[in-house]
Design brief:
heterodimer, A: alpha+beta, HU Protein, Chain A, 2 domains, two-stranded antiparallel ribbon, 5 strands, B: alpha+beta, about 45% helix, about 30% strand, Hist_DNA-bd (chain B), DNA recombination (chain B), transcription (chain B)
Amino acid sequence: MTLTKAELADLLFEQVGLNKRESKDMVEGFFEEIRTALERGDCVKLSGFGNFQLRDKPQRPGRNPKTGEEIPITARRVVTFHASQKLKSSVEKLSYAGKS
Amino acid sequence: MTKSELIARLAARFPQLVAKDADYAVKMILDAMTDSLSRGDRIEIRGFGSFALNYRPPRMGRNPKSGERVEVAEKHVPHFKAGKELRERVDLAE
């Protein structure tokens, strides 16, 4: 099952004792604070989970795959995520039974 | 921004809560995300992005020190794809 904001909010409601409204706002605030930091150009380091970093990519030549027409891909800033050693080791020993 | 700065910002957003709640909530969210990926489940956060696992098949590697060939077992690695809102906000912010 996919983890979404709704499940995270339920968890805060059940385990942290926040009310429904606060749980929902806390989850929203968590992701919003990370977005705001990245928007400011700050990288975000969550120890034990991973780092969100920013990369500035220069303009490069591209192509419209349909028409073959050459169009430049403009310079842009993108977010990259680097999982911590702890997160990497907890997913790599994932059991293969029933999963591919 | 570090985890403790994130906790401080969240605590400031919710003045009606005790500071410990923000601390506990952040740990809870990160643990739930780690658990979900460890089970092989995806994470999908609208406007932020999704986390999934990529499969790496077994391969023959080399010990860079001794040059000896070693078998590297198959594994999964976490992968993050930024969502539309995050992508746009980060790119426009320059």
